[in-house]
């Protein structure tokens, strides 16, 4: 437990976490109460074991403190003069000290959020990207409430290991595309590179490449239950690599070259740990690894498990940006599920446009599962209940947007069939597992990776992305 806040720390057992949960809730409640009391004035209370509410701290509030400061300034000036005769400056820098109540409130809010962040086991498990995101978040955070704390930090507390593994996956996916293939991870270390080349690792420890190296080594250390490197340790390792050409790290060696590149070379145990961590993160959700068996089935037969993964809102928002909609388009969404993406499309014309009023879109969905189709229709969407692969194609749509079944390479049949529904000059955006691009070569048009764990809320950590294709006009 953190002695200042009573927060549980990472590494505790489930039983210990369960016992500490009330302490966490009480501590957070007390921090929010203290923040409010300091800002507006009031008392911080605590209930004793006998049920008595006792006041443990009282505050005047920032507005009152600001007035008291101004009054104190006036008293000090008065104490330094007789009548109206001026004897000279008494304040440093030659002017009266001033404070702003609004700036005090902003500083208090940032301090409160950082105090919660540093007390909870968030930064101990958050990925390098999430830690950088929080640095920006703290510059202008929302009002501190228990609900806001749960919204921004809750996911890290509920599943710390997920975020540790996500951090490792982010680092390795950024450094080498091979790690975006869950099938290579599934078949063992022979499917992964033993050496990674990082560019722009120059003499500045804040350079892009140096930051990537540090994030990667720290992600591996956190996965192993080790503390992140302190700045001195990190600086010494990089200095040794530059002076002598290489340096050891826990999991291998780093070699430094005069062109600014660095090679991370993993030893057998390091590579095994990386492989095991990524395999655990990605999971065995897609049986499309080279050693997986899949029964032959007719091209239009629906797989036994279509791996229904609803499209998360963040993915939908990015996909819609890529559609370059102008209004009035006819849109088809095969495998539309319960209509989550159609919800966003239906609301598209209501979103703010500073130049003109948007023309509504005309969206049609197709869904094999009758229950999900009915759920989509209940929200007002036009949905056909059918196996998309058995629907006769008609090239009458301006746009096809889709998140087809991820099962095996079954998605390829959906992707091929969808192209037949587009008008000439129409565009298609298709969300796919990353193996479709990196392993199978089954994508069309331009490929874009989605962030690691984009579908985690839908039940899979498999690397994903999407392809964007424009049908030729002639």
From TrEMBL:
<feature type="domain" description="Methyltransferase small">
    <location>
        <begin position="371"/>
        <end position="435"/>
    </location>
</feature>
<dbReference type="Pfam" id="PF05175">
    <property type="entry name" value="MTS"/>
</dbReference>
<dbReference type="GO" id="GO:0008170">
    <property type="term" value="F:N-methyltransferase activity"/>
</dbReference>
<dbReference type="GO" id="GO:0003676">
    <property type="term" value="F:nucleic acid binding"/>
</dbReference>
<dbReference type="InterPro" id="IPR031339">
    <property type="entry name" value="DUF4942"/>
</dbReference>
<dbReference type="GO" id="GO:0032259">
    <property type="term" value="P:methylation"/>
</dbReference>
<feature type="region of interest" description="Disordered">
    <location>
        <begin position="1"/>
        <end position="21"/>
    </location>
</feature>
<keyword id="KW-0808">Transferase</keyword>
<protein>
    <submittedName>
        <fullName>SAM-dependent methyltransferase</fullName>
    </submittedName>
</protein>
<dbReference type="Pfam" id="PF13708">
    <property type="entry name" value="DUF4942"/>
</dbReference>
<keyword id="KW-0489">Methyltransferase</keyword>
<dbReference type="InterPro" id="IPR007848">
    <property type="entry name" value="Small_mtfrase_dom"/>
</dbReference>
<dbReference type="InterPro" id="IPR002052">
    <property type="entry name" value="DNA_methylase_N6_adenine_CS"/>
</dbReference>
<keyword id="KW-0949">S-adenosyl-L-methionine</keyword>
<feature type="domain" description="DUF4942">
    <location>
        <begin position="107"/>
        <end position="284"/>
    </location>
</feature>
<dbReference type="InterPro" id="IPR029063">
    <property type="entry name" value="SAM-dependent_MTases_sf"/>
</dbReference>
<dbReference type="GO" id="GO:0008757">
    <property type="term" value="F:S-adenosylmethionine-dependent methyltransferase activity"/>
</dbReference>
């Amino acid at each position: 437990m953190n002695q200042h806040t009573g927060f549980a720390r990472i590494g505790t057992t489930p039983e210990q976490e369960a016992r500490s949960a009330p302490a966490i809730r009480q501590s957070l409640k007390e921090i929010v109460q203290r923040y409010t009391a300091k800002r507006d004035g009031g008392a911080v209370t605590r209930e004793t074991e006998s049920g008595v509410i006792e006041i443990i701290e009282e505050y005047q509030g920032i507005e009152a403190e600001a007035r008291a400061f101004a009054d104190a300034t006036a008293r000090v000036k008065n104490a330094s003069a007789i009548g109206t005769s001026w004897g000279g400056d008494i304040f440093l820098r030659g002017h009266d000290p001033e404070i702003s109540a609004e700036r005090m409130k902003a500083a208090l809010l940032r301090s409160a959020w950082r105090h919660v962040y540093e007390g909870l086991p968030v930064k101990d498990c958050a990925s390098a990207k999430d830690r950088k995101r929080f640095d920006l978040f703290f510059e202008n955070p929302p009002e501190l409430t228990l609900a806001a704390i749960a919204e921004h930090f809750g996911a890290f507390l509920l599943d710390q290991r997920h975020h540790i593994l996500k951090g490792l996956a982010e680092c390795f996916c950024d450094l080498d595309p091979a790690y975006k293939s869950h099938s290579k991870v599934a078949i063992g270390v022979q499917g992964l590179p033993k050496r990674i080349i990082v560019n722009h690792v120059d003499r500045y420890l804040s350079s892009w490449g140096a930051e990537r190296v540090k994030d990667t080594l720290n992600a591996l250390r956190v996965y192993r239950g080790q503390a992140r490197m302190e700045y001195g340790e990190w600086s010494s390792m990089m200095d040794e690599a530059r002076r002598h050409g290489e340096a050891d790290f826990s999991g291998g060696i780093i070699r430094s070259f005069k062109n600014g590149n660095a090679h991370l070379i993993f030893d057998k145990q390091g590579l095994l740990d990386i492989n095991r961590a990524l395999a655990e993160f990605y999971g065995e959700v897609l049986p499309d690894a080279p050693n997986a068996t899949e029964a032959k089935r007719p091209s239009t037969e629906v797989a036994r498990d279509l791996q229904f993964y609803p499209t998360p809102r963040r993915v939908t928002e990015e996909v819609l940006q890529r559609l370059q909609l102008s209004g009035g388009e006819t849109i088809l969404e095969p495998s539309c599920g319960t209509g989550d993406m159609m919800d966003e499309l239906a609301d598209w014309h209501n979103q703010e446009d500073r130049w003109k009023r948007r023309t509504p879109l005309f969206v049609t969905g197709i869904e094999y599962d009758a229950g999900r189709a009915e759920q989509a229709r209940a929200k007002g969407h036009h949905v056909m209940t059918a196996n998309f692969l058995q629907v006769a194609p008609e090239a009458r749509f301006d746009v096809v947007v889709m998140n087809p079944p991820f099962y095996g390479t079954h998605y390829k049949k959906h992707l091929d069939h969808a192209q037949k529904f587009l008008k000439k000059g129409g565009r298609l955006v298709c969300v796919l597992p990353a193996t479709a691009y990196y392993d199978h070569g089954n994508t069309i048009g331009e490929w874009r990776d989605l962030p690691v764990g984009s579908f985690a809320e839908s039940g899979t950590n498999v690397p994903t992305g999407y392809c964007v294709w424009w049908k030729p006009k002639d």
